[in-house]
Specification:
The protein is mainly α and 578 residues long. The chain is built from 23 helices and 2 strands. The protein has helices spanning 2-29, 35-39, 41-62, 66-92, 98-128, 132-151, 163-174, 184-187, 190-205, 207-217, 224-233, 242-267, 277-289, 310-325, 327-346, 359-383, 393-410, 422-434, 447-461, 476-503, 509-520, 535-550, 552-560, and strands spanning 468-469, 472-473. The relative contact order is 0.08.
């Protein structure tokens, strides 16, 4: 009897969730069009919050599973706090502004409640479908589609938008690419920019990590399958404390982005051309850490007000590097620093005798340092007499370093990349192809893949069967995976270039190749042809961006991998290579 009642209530709960979605769409998407809505908005918002509070109380009473009871209590907490804050704002606010404050609080609470409900829905999928790779891929596809429909709402744009352009922008944001077919500053309203910002944040961290963060934060139980899903995204080697790792990923990301926004705000404090400095700082901090490359300025960071804002550019560079290193690498070094400090305080060596910095971290950091330093030196000498000739020495170093950093996955530009010399353009393509590090917010084949491929060449030249480095032997499975990733990336990029060449007759091969490499590596740099592409080319780039972000190899493994083991071996035979 109790289960039948709970089942009936869950059906009603689903209907109320649909009502909430429709309400939020009208609230944000049609607010300036349906004027009657504004006159009674506070009443509608208050009624919906009270309805949700009452129904969650009913669900808590009749929930027969402890885990579900915790979920409804978390929902209740958000709604009750929202209602209390709104009531305080109504009582203490002035006559003219209090309704706006109340509406803002109620809107924020309902959005947070909606994210909690969405979290619970996604977590249910863990019990329905067990393949973590397919769930990971599906989460990006679903978020991309939702984002496209949100960007098509009347309040999101100034002059309307087609589905193709909305879908392209949404996928570019959720895949943290940064390629744009419209002017983000002029063609999107504040709501549209906010939608893009949320897509960047969700795409950078991952929807599965967000759901696990809410589950851990509200002390909800997690399943073995959920741990598998999260571990596949955050590149964890085991399931031990993987939910806590997801919590640390979200907290670390939000903390760095808040600190970054703080520094950006004070670095642009004297720039009068930027009106809403708070939103600008927050937007660019999130965009930089997630390696997205989106900007709220029409010319990006190439705007005349920021061309010589070198302090601002260095802040962006540090955020990009931190986001592109990968969470495991950053946490590994933080653990090393913690042990080092403990050993200094305790005046002991016991904390430093254990190997803390992993070989993976060393490979990633050394490769990243070589690429950043080499890229900075290359661009400095290649462009100091060309594109950087009118800048000071410090400006030339900053511009060269910024180009080296942003070319790997960030996609910000402080000048028009079409003005680069041809050697510099080819080197940018090379850096874009390598990309960021595994388990990060960036794309590309990854620094560890490039490092293993290079080390494998050296090992073969020396006649060794395995890669040996710092007293360790690299697993051959990692080398095979690196080789597969390189081959797949070149095949996808080559196919993308070939298909775009069929659609475009007015652009050169180097322009199309640059665009495709940028899309696959989720960089977002362009030689200025993105907005002029045909509909067919846009959909080709959508697929390239999507496959570049999720990793086509991961998708193939998720679809083709079999769980049973093979207990037999075939006879070996050599194949002539050269």
């Amino acid at each position: 009897m109790a289960r039948n009642l709970s089942y009936t209530l869950s059906k009603i709960y689903g209907f109320i969730d649909i009502l909430l979605i429709v309400f939020l769409i009208f609230d944000f998407g049609y607010e300036n069009i349906i004027t009657d809505w504004l006159n009674h908005k506070t009443l509608y918002l208050t009624f919906l919050v009270l309805l949700l509070i009452g129904f969650n109380m009913l669900r808590i009473k009749h929930a027969y599973k402890p885990g579900r009871r915790k979920m409804f209590k978390a929902n209740m907490l958000v709604l009750v706090v929202t209602f209390i804050l709104a009531t305080i704002a109504f009582i203490t606010g002035d006559e003219y502004g209090r309704l706006n404050d109340v509406n803002f609080i109620l809107d924020t609470g309902l959005i947070l409640y909606f994210f909690l409900r969405l979290t619970n829905l996604i977590r249910k999928l863990y019990d329905i479908y067990y393949n973590p790779t397919i769930l990971f891929v599906g989460s990006f596809a679903i978020v991309g589609l939702i984002g496209a429909f949100l960007l098509m709402l009347p309040n999101a744009t100034t002059n309307g938008i087609t589905f193709t352009d909305a879908f392209f922008t949404s996928i570019s944001a959720v895949c943290v690419t940064g390629l744009v077919v419209l002017d983000t500053a002029k063609d999107f309203t504040f709501m549209g920019k906010t939608v893009i910002l949320v897509l960047i944040q969700v795409g950078g961290i991952g929807m599965l990590t967000f759901t696990s963060f809410f589950a851990y934060f509200f002390k909800q139980s997690s399943s073995f399958r959920e741990g598998m899903n999260v571990s596949s995204f955050v590149e964890s080697e085991g399931l031990h404390d993987v939910m806590r790792l997801a919590m640390r990923v979200v907290v670390f990301t939000l903390s760095i982005e808040i600190v970054g926004a703080f520094f950006i705000y004070y670095s642009i404090n004297d720039v009068a051309e930027i009106k809403n400095k708070f939103f600008f700082s927050l937007f660019h901090s999130i965009s930089a850490f997630c390696n997205a490359g989106f900007s709220t300025l029409s010319s990006g960071l190439n705007d005349t007000a920021l061309q010589e804002a070198y302090q601002f550019q260095w802040i962006i560079m540090h955020l990009v590097i931190l986001g592109g290193l990968g969470y495991n690498i950053v946490f590994n070094f933080l653990r090393y620093i913690k042990r080092f400090v403990m050993s200094m305080v305790a005046n002991r060596r016991m904390y430093t005798t254990v190997r803390v910095i992993t070989l993976n971290s060393k490979i990633v950091v050394i490769t990243t340092a070589i690429l950043l330093t080499g890229g900075t030196l290359f661009f400095f000498f290649a462009e100091k007499g060309h594109l950087f000739q009118n800048e000071s020495f410090y400006g030339k170093v900053t511009s060269a370093a910024f180009t080296s950093v942003t070319a790997r996955t960030a996609g910000f530009n402080t000048f028009d990349f079409a003005d680069l010399s041809m050697p510099a353009i080819l080197f940018v393509i090379f850096l874009m192809w390598i990309g960021a590090s595994p388990g990060s917010t960036g794309g590309g084949i990854k620094t560890s893949t490039f490092a293993l491929a290079t080390l494998n060449i050296v090992a073969i030249a020396k006649g060794k069967e395995h890669i040996e480095l710092r007293g360790r032997k690299i697993n051959n499975q990692s080398v095979k995976r690196a080789f597969a990733i390189i081959c797949i990336s070149l095949m996808v990029i080559g196919l993308g270039i070939l298909m775009i060449l069929f659609f475009e007759k007015d652009f050169t091969l180097i322009q199309i190749a640059f665009e495709t490499f940028s899309a696959f590596s989720t960089v977002g740099l362009s030689l200025g042809i993105t907005a002029g592409l045909s509909v067919g080319s846009k959909y080709v780039l959508i697929c390239v961006m999507f496959f570049g972000r999720i990793g086509l190899l991961n998708l193939l493994i998720g679809m083709m991998k079999r769980l049973h083991t093979q207990n037999y071996n075939y006879p070996e035979e050599n194949i002539l290579i050269n």
